[in-house]
């Protein structure tokens, strides 16, 4: 599915980035995941949802910030999309780097600080995700050159400064 999405976006001159579990693989953290999470600009939502549905994906949820899609054929699995705009889109896509996601599949991934910000947002929205997100964030914070000030700001924006201090104390 990654190749299909790559063709969709490149055919429109539009950026996208792999996030979630597959995005973490680009930073050396492999975990079992059966879905493909991507970030895309909100202006492509309508066309992207239509494209996924034309491939046989059922849209499970759609809002301004997210859409979730599931294919009945298990190998095609689930595609979850986070939609970004404005300065966020410019930063996420402008600072993304090409990386091997799985052997033979290369795509853009956001820098660790942007993946962390998305994980902090997810944790704030759904506290049941806290422990897994914190483990992922800790791994990402250990990547070379991570801007801890930027990470701290992401936690502060969600009122989770104590969680940032907990992680930082373990590094």
Task: Compile the SSE list and pairings.
Blueprint: H1 2-10, E1 16-19, H2 20-25, E2 35-41, H3 45-54, E3 57-62, E4 66-71, E5 78-84, H4 86-94, E6 97-102, E7 105-109, H5 112-125, H6 130-141, H7 148-157, H8 161-170
Parallel strand pairs: 2-5
Antiparallel strand pairs: 1-2, 3-4, 4-5, 6-7
Helix pairs in contact: 5-6, 5-7, 7-8
**Overall tally of domains:** 2
Number of extended strands: 7
CATH topology of the largest domain: Beta Polymerase, domain 2
The rounded distance between the terminal residues' Cα atoms is 36 Å
Query: Biggest β-sheet: count, sense, barrel?
Result: 5 strands, mixed
**Structural class computed from helices and strand pairing:** alpha+beta
Please count the helical segments.
Answer: 8
Q: Give the H and E element order.
A: HEHEHEEEHEEHHHH
Helix proportion: 40-55%
**Highest-level CATH class of the largest domain:** Alpha Beta
CATH architecture of the largest domain: 2-Layer Sandwich
Strand content: 15-25%
Strand order of the largest sheet: 1-2-5-4-3
Unreliable stretches covering 5 or more consecutive residues = none
Would you mind describing this structure in some detail?
The protein has helices spanning 2-10, 20-25, 45-54, 86-94, 112-125, 130-141, 148-157, 161-170, and strands at 16-19, 35-41, 57-62, 66-71, 78-84, 97-102, 105-109. The chain is α+β, with helices and mostly antiparallel strands. The protein folds into 2 domains: 1-110, Beta Polymerase, domain 2 (2-Layer Sandwich); 111-171. The strands form 2 sheets. A 5-stranded mixed beta sheet has the order 1-2-5-4-3. The chain has a two-stranded antiparallel sheet with strand order 6-7. A hairpin with a 6-residue loop joins strand 4 (66-71) and strand 5 (78-84). Helix 5 (112-125) packs antiparallel against helix 6, helix 5 (112-125) packs parallel to helix 7 and helix 7 runs antiparallel to helix 8 (161-170). The longest helix is centred in the C-terminal third of the chain and has 14 residues, at 112-125. The model has no long low-confidence stretch (mean pLDDT 94).
